[in-house]
Design a protein that fits this description.
- Helices cover 37% and strands 15% of the residues.
- The protein is of the alpha/beta class and 166 residues long.
- The chain has two domains: 89 residues, Rossmann fold; 62 residues, no CATH class.
- α3 links the parallel β1 and β2.
- The relative contact order is 0.14.
Length: 166
């Protein structure tokens, strides 16, 4: 697996989510997470290690995150325990995690759920008077993945043209 931080994060697509109860329940006989990738932050020990191993028992490949170089040996031990379950493990240090919450985007997915009247209502509810395009959202993703956003982490970014402000 690619151990370059941006390569790992950008190359995964939709990553799995660590479930706290994974280890307590024991391995799934179906290995229901086979083919998925989970990023587990703070996976070098304690809860993070338990989450990583629990996900591996259920078939997920695991990206083991650790914060500092002096904790890398512990992260390597976690990766060894993950690999013992027949899955892949990669180590990374320093993860930036952000969520992008787009408003209504002009896609077939959006239109399949809406009536003509509801689409018009939503268009008029946006400041721009239209639905977003995919390109309207892509710029935010590109920015957040760039070095210019190095100080932005653990945030939800509402990219919605003031539609349904929180």
């Amino acid at each position: 697996m690619n151990t370059n931080r941006r390569g790992v994060l950008m190359g995964m697509g939709a990553a799995g989510v660590a479930l706290a109860a994974g280890e307590a329940r024991g391995p799934s006989p179906q290995r229901e997470l086979a083919g998925k990738v989970a990023i587990v932050t703070g996976a070098r020990n304690n809860l993070g290690r338990a989450f990583a191993v629990g996900l591996a028992k259920n078939g997920a490949n695991v990206v083991v995150h650790y914060h500092r170089e002096e904790t890398k040996a512990e992260a390597e031990e976690t990766a060894k325990r993950v690999r013992a379950h027949g899955v892949k493990a990669a180590l990374i240090s320093g993860v930036t995690v952000n969520t992008v919450a787009p408003g209504a985007v002009d896609t077939p997915f959006f239109h399949s759920q809406e009536t003509l009247q509801s689409v018009e209502y939503v268009k008029n509810a946006h400041v721009a008077g239209r639905l977003a395009t995919v390109d309207d959202i892509v710029g935010t993703i590109e920015f957040l993945a760039s070095p210019r956003a190095a100080w932005i982490s653990a945030q939800t970014h509402f990219v919605n043209n003031a539609y349904l402000p929180r």
